[in-house]
Each structure stands twice: as structure tokens, then as C-alpha cells.
Design goal:
The chain is an alpha/beta fold. Residues 468-478 have low confidence and may be disordered. The chain has helices at residues 9-16, 59-65, 79-87, 98-112, 126-137, 155-160, 181-189, 204-207, 210-217, 239-245, 295-308, 313-321, 350-364, 383-397, 409-418, 431-441, 458-465; strands at 7-8, 19-22, 28-29, 31-33, 43-46, 69-72, 91-94, 117-121, 143-145, 169-173, 193-196, 229-233, 249-254, 261-269, 272-279, 282-288, 331-334, 340-344, 369-373, 401-404, 426-428, 447-451. It starts with 6 loop residues before the first strand and ends in a 13-residue tail after the last helix. The protein folds into 3 domains: 3-101, Udp-n-acetylmuramoylalanyl-d-glutamate--2,6- Diaminopimelate Ligase, Chain: A, domain 1 (3-Layer(aba) Sandwich); 113-321, Mur-like, catalytic domain (UDP-N-acetylmuramoyl-L-alanine:D-glutamate ligase); 331-465, Protein-Tyrosine Phosphatase, Chain A, CATH 3.90.190. The chain contains 17 helices and 22 strands.
């Protein structure tokens, strides 16, 4: 067992500021766990109060099962059981807030495993940039990266708690939907490198406008370690404001002439993009195996991370060229029926919707380009207008057919029709109806982009289109 992964009672108390209310102060634990279904007896359980479950409800059965450590914010009600359990070697720590305690434990652990950590946030491209940066770093160093979308006040700590002495670098993603969230996540991480991919209209329900989005993302800057680096998008309209707010060294990526990391001689051929990457240490030719010019920004940001942390140009190139799109984020699948499906169903906001539509139109050539769109959520009071404009953009860009579902489907459809899309080319209905209609309509050579916010369930449409769930229909050149 990695000695750095061990947790003494003293470590737990110092990290959380909690109180040992039962059991000996000599306990040692192998790790931290918040899942009562998977916890091992030598791990300590943190009873998280989530939106669906309260971990405190599982404490009695865990004590009965022989788990030796618990961290709670609500005292154990059965004192007799607690005393008996403590006499057998169990330890109970009381804290004011178990979610905050989880973050404090992760912050403590990150600082004792003192390796370079890169934190990535932004309105679009966070996950892809994170995956690309991890691929670049992994060419020379053992690298830990956020799994999936564990980027909030619970997911981020769980990622950092996986650190051990075998790791030589880490890349984490920071998400948010309200002011102050990035501030807390940044406090936990204390990054050596901070990346802000861009600022755009996302999470407007909690942040009102893009000025507030910028302020919320900029909360990360104050937590960069002394001597650290901030990486910003030179093509973003908010770059000057962000640069002024940073007290760290700043490096920029983009297509602008003043970017430290920029792309020239760009050529999209099918599902690949070829370009010359200009970096402080020289130029390198890259063949990026992903569709869409907007992916260039993600690749340049990842290259900047690698360069700042000492990865050679050769390995930066091999890391980027070895990258493959993540499921739900512009991943391409060719079905047995000859239909091209672009799976971008994990998330959606106006910026990412526009970029995805541009990619669809660029790829379809002389074939039909079909957009299947679900709602863009958390858009606030202007959501209807934003969906109307998205539909309008899709029609003007050259999308041939539109299938829309959700609470703002009518707005999306109206926008497309206002820009000249034929009434017969627009289908509005449930996911069930869309899948049934697509099965009747699609033919070889068609290109289908499926996009929507994650909770709209558009990924289920993708699964049916690519033939993984046949039979059942989802509910609810240069």
C-alpha cells in the first residue's frame, strides 16, 4: 500500500478541523470513501449529504459491517451502538460540513503529493482540453486526470484523493453553475497551471450574463501557486480582462498573431485537421484526429500545458495525434447502414452548438446534414431567444433537416424556419418520435449531429442510431 495514501487520525483532524468524538486516536486508514456500497473496512467513510441520498443514513449498517472509521456532520443517534463500536476500535470524527471536509481532505492530500497540477475551466471545451492535456503529459509522465465529468465540489476531491507517489502530474477539470464555486475548487486544487478555455453564455440561469461568467471563471486565478502559469485564449474577447486580473505569468493560445501557441496552415480533411503549431520552442506539424476547427483551441491549450511543464515538442505532437474524442463530445461513429453519427450529446450551450453545427456542415459535403437538438439548459431568462437564434444559425449555416425536442423545441424550430428552412424539413417531437422518424428517414451517406444538455437524454438517441440498443425506443480538402 502506498504510504502517502495512509490516513492517520491526526491527519484527518488537521485536514478537516473536526473533533474525534469516539474511538482511539491511533487509527490508520488506507483511503477515503463516500460510497457505502464499495467501501473497504480499512477506509474511512465520509457521510455526504447529496441531492438524492444522505450518507448518514448508511452509518449504522457500515458500523455493523465492520467499517472502522466515519466522518459525520450529524452525531450518531444511537450512543450505545457508537460506544460499543468505538470499544472495538471504530473512530468517529464530527465536522461542521462533510462536503467541505471532503474538499479539505483532498486539499491536504494534494499538498502532500506535491506534483504539478493543472486545473482547467471555461465555458466550452473543458473536458476535451483536459483529455488532450493528459494525453500530452502522459507521453513523459505518469498522469492522473479527472474521470468523466467529476468536476464539482464532490467529484474534484474524489479525483485528487486518487493521487499517489506513482503520479508525476495531474490534470483536473473545474465546473460550475454559480458564483463562488470555482473559488472553492481553486482553493482545493492550488494549481501550478490554470487554463481558462474561453468565456461564453453558459449557466446564465445562475450567472445572468457573460460578464458574470468571466468573473466566476476568474476566481481560479487567485489560487495559482507562486511561480505558476495562467493559460488564456488569445481569441477570446475577455482575454485582456482576465490577463489584467492575473498576478501569475500568462501564456496565450489561439489563432491571433500575438498568441504564444498558435495554429497556421490549417487544413481540414475529413475527420482530421492538419496544421502547423507555432510554439516558443519552434514549430511542429500536427495531424489532429478530430473533426471541427473549434478543436484547434483545445489542442493549442493542451500543447501550452505540456510546454509549460517541460514536455518536448515531439511528445506534445505524439500526445495530440494519439488523442481520440471522448464519448458524447464530437465522437464520430459510422453505422452499419452507412450513416455518420456525430455524438455531441453530453452538453450544450450557444457557443458549443454553433461550433458543432459548423463542423457538421463542413463534414457533410454533398450529403444531407441533419441536426437532432435537445434543450440547452441553464440559459436563464433569455433561453427562448437563445434557442431561436441557434435554430436560425443552423438553417443559415446549411443544415438540411432539423429534429428538435424539449421545452424550447418550438423556439429552435421557429428560428430555423425564420431563416428559410422549409416547414417539411423541421420535425418537433419527443425523443421517441424523433428516433422513429429518423429510422424511417435516414439513408447511407447522411450525417447526423446529436446535441443537447446532458439531462435532456439525447445520448439515448445516439445509442439507438448507432445500433447499440436496437428494438427499444428511449423514453421520457485543401
Amino acid at each position: 500500500m502506498d504510504t502517502a495514501a495512509k490516513w492517520r487520525i491526526d491527519d484527518l483532524l488537521r485536514a478537516t478541523g473536526g473533533s474525534l468524538v469516539a474511538g482511539p486516536d491511533t487509527g490508520v486508514f488506507a483511503g477515503i470513501c463516500i460510497d457505502s456500497r464499495t467501501i473497504q473496512k480499512d477506509e474511512i467513510f465520509v457521510a455526504i449529504k447529496g441531492s438524492r441520498y444522505d450518507g448518514h443514513a448508511f452509518v449504522p449498517e457500515l458500523m455493523e459491517a465492520g467499517v472502522r472509521g466515519i466522518i459525520v456532520e450529524t452525531p450518531v443517534a444511537d450512543r450505545q451502538r457508537l460506544v460499543k463500536w468505538a470499544q472495538a476500535g471504530g473512530c468517529c470524527i464530527l465536522v461542521a460540513d462533510t462536503i467541505r471536509a471532503l474538499g479539505d481532505l483532498a486539499a491536504f492530500h494534494r499538498r502532500r503529493i506535491d506534483i504539478p497540477v493543472t486545473a482547467i475551466t471555461g465555458s466550452n471545451g473543458k473536458t476535451t482540453t483536459k483529455e488532450m492535456a493528459a494525453a500530452v503529459l502522459a507521453t513523459e509522465r505518469s498522469t492522473l486526470a479527472t474521470t468523466g465529468n467529476l468536476n464539482n465540489e464532490i467529484g474534484l476531491p474524489l479525483t485528487l484523493l486518487r493521487l499517489n507517489h506513482s503520479h508525476e502530474a495531474a490534470v483536473v477539470e473545474l465546473g460550475m453553475n454559480h458564483s463562488g464555486e470555482i473559488d472553492r475548487l481553486g482553493e482545493i486544487v492550488g494549481p501550478d497551471v490554470a487554463v481558462i478555455t474561453n468565456i461564453g453564455p453558459a449557466h446564465l440561469e445562475g450567472l445572468k450574463d457573460t460578464d458574470h461568467v468571466m468573473a466566476a471563471k476568474a476566481e481560479l486565478l487567485r489560487h495559482v501557486r507562486p511561480g505558476g502559469t495562467v493559460i488564456l485564449n488569445a481569441d477570446d474577447p475577455y482575454v485582456d480582462g482576465l490577463q489584467e486580473m492575473s498576478t501569475s505569468r500568462v501564456r496565450c493560445f489561439g489563432l491571433s498573431e500575438n498568441a504564444h501557441y498558435r495554429a497556421t496552415d490549417i487544413c481540414q480533411t475529413g475527420l482530421e485537421i492538419e496544421f502547423e503549431m507555432i510554439m516558443p520552442g519552434g514549430a511542429v506539424a500536427i495531424r489532429l484526429p478530430v473533426p471541427g476547427r473549434h478543436m484547434l483551441a483545445n489542442a493549442l491549450a493542451a500543447a501550452a500545458v505540456g510546454d509549460v511543464l517541460g514536455i518536448s515538442n515531439l511528445h506534445i505532437r505524439s500526445g495530440l495525434e494519439g488523442f481520440r474524442p471522448v464519448k458524447g463530445r464530437m465522437a464520430h461513429v459510422l453505422t452499419p447502414q452507412g450513416v455518420h453519427v456525430i455524438d455531441d450529446a453530453y452538453n450544450a450551450n450557444p457557443g458549443s452548438m454553433k461550433a458543432a453545427v459548423e463542423t457538421l456542415v463542413g463534414l457533410k459535403g454533398e450529403h444531407r446534414g441533419i441536426l437532432v437538438a435537445g434543450d440547452m439548459l441553464e440559459m436563464g431568462e433569455g433561453a427562448g431567444t437563445l434557442h431561436y437564434e441557434a435554430g436560425r444559425y443552423a438553417a443559415l449555416a446549411g443544415v438540411d433537416r432539423l429534429y428538435v425536442s424539449g421545452g424550447f423545441a418550438a423556439d429552435f424550430a421557429a428560428g430555423a424556419k425564420s431563416a428559410g428552412m422549409d416547414e417539411d424539413a423541421v420535425f418537433k417531437g419527443s425523443r421517441i418520435e424523433i428516433v422513429e422518424e429518423l429510422f424511417r428517414d435516414l439513408g447511407p451517406g447522411d450525417w447526423v449531429l446529436v446535441k443537447g444538455s446532458h439531462s435532456t437524454g439525447m445520448d439515448q438517441v445516439v445509442q439507438h442510431l448507432i445500433g447499440r440498443e436496437r428494438g427499444a425506443v428511449p423514453g421520457g480538402g485543401c
